[in-house]
Amino acid sequence: MPKHNSPIRKAVFPVAGLGTRFLPATKAMPKEMLTVVDRPVIQHVVDEAREAGIEHFIFVTGRNKGVIEDHFDSQYELERTLADRGKHRELEMITRDLPGPGQTSFTRQQAPLGLGHAVWCARDLVGDEPFALLLPDMLHHAETPCLAEMMKAYGEKGGNVVSVSPVPSDQTHLYGIVGVEQPKAKVSAISKMVEKPPRGTAPSNLHITGRYILQPEIFEILANQESGSGGEIQLTDAMLTLMHDKKQPFHSVRFDGHIYDCGSKIGFLMANVVYALARDDLGPSFHSELKKLF
Ligand code: G1P
Predict the structure, then answer these.
(1) Is residue 253 very low, low, confident or very high in pLDDT (cuts 50, 70, 90)?
(2) Model pLDDT, residue 2
(3) Phi and psi (nearest 5°) for 187?
């Protein structure tokens, strides 16, 4: 069997979700554009992908998400004005992290049929090569970015790689859960996968955190995937078929940093606090302001 270890050049970002949990903020603005300190959530996740060596960024968008496309484009008038006014720091800030010409692609998921369906919408843009998938709501905060650690494991193991971390056992029904062969190891072969197992039935407390490296054969499976948990086309169900029926290896990489679910209000607020405290320019003064509150 081939080792399935071609380089990972492309990353997919499913950004079609409605963001109902953040209304009214998300009435006219995509939830991915909410800012954590001074960068949109989606920018933090694209940064993580770039730091892991990704060269092409594929966004699966939906209605009212056009501003995400604009965010990753150059803004000629603004750049010109900043340059004329000598605002070089600000100019550098908006140009430094821009993907280069031809490094972004956008497609649409017309109906909210589930994560598996969103990923399938990217099939032609990904083509016949393995790819990374990053769920933008989940900010992974760590010294070594999560996807970079997964790339390392992929370099050794090939196949498919999924980031996992433990959750309290009363929360396993909220996530995709995996069973692994070596629960204590940083990298382990995966033996089981289930999307949102009913309470009391989870094979472990290791949840899928929202970072994946997948082989392109996932698309053929997704093309015929029936709806699963919550009536949606689930990626986890397709991964299970890829593992069992197509005999492809799956490994977990335990993420040891902190995850902030920016789709939830508490997660989003905590991300702002933690990311601000970690900044050299803001951290010390923010810390002393926060202390005055308690
Ligand atoms: C999705 C995945 C799930 C994963 C989760 C991480 O679920 O289907 O396996 O654990 O993201 O956030 P969702 O949050 O879209 O319900």
Answers:
(1) very high
(2) 47
(3) -120, 130
Q: If you measure from the C-alpha of residue 208 to the centroid of ligand 1, how many angstroms do you get, rounded to a whole number?
A: 7
Token pair belonging to 121: 């919408």
User: Using CA atoms, how far apart are residues 251 and 155, in angstroms rounded to an integer?
Assistant: 12
Domains along the sequence of the chain with CATH: 10-291 (3.90.550.10)
CA neighbours within 13 Å on the CB side: how many for 2? 7
Task: Give pLDDT tens digits for 108-165.
Answer: 999 999 999 999 999 999 999 999 999 999 999 999 999 999 999 999 999 999 999 9
Cβ of 167 less than 6 Å from ligand 1:
no
Residue 236 CB less than 6 A away from ligand 1: yes
pTM attached to this predicted model: 0.95
Report CA(11)–ligand 1 centroid distance (Å). Answer: 17
Q: Which residue's alpha carbon is at the smallest distance from atom 9 of ligand 1?
A: 176
Question: Does the beta carbon of 192 lie inside 6 Å of ligand 1?
Answer: no
pLDDT at 18: 83
CA nearest to 41, candidates 71, 63, 66, 21: 71
Residue 97, pLDDT above cutoff 90 = no
**Does residue 24 have a cis bond before it (omega within 30 degrees)?**
yes
**Rg, C-alpha atoms of the chain:** 19
Closest residue to atom 2 of ligand 1, CA basis: 176
Are the C-beta atoms of residues 130 and 4 closer than 8 Å to each other? Answer: yes
